[in-house]
Amino acid sequence: MSASQPRQTADAAPTLLVKIFGKDRPGITAGLFDTLAAYSLDVIDIEQVVTRGRIVLCALVTSPADGGTEGELRATVHSWAESLKLQAEIISGTGDNRPRGSGRSHVTVLGHPLSAESTAAIAARITSTGGNIDRIFRLAKYPVTAVEFAVSGTETGPLRTALATEAAEIGVDVAVVSAGLHHRAQRLVVMDVDSTLIQDEVIELFAAHAGCEEQVAEVTARAMAGELDFEQSLHARVALLAGLDASVVEKVRAEVRLTPGARTLIRTLKRLGYQVGVVSGGFTQVTDGLKDQLGLDFASANTLEIVDGKLTGRVVGEIVDRAGKARLLRRFAAEAGVPLSQTVAIGDGANDLDMLNAAGLGVAFNAKPVVRRAAHTAVNVPFLDTVLYLLGITREEVEEVEAAEVPST
Question: Catalytic residue at 194?
Answer without folding.
Answer: yes
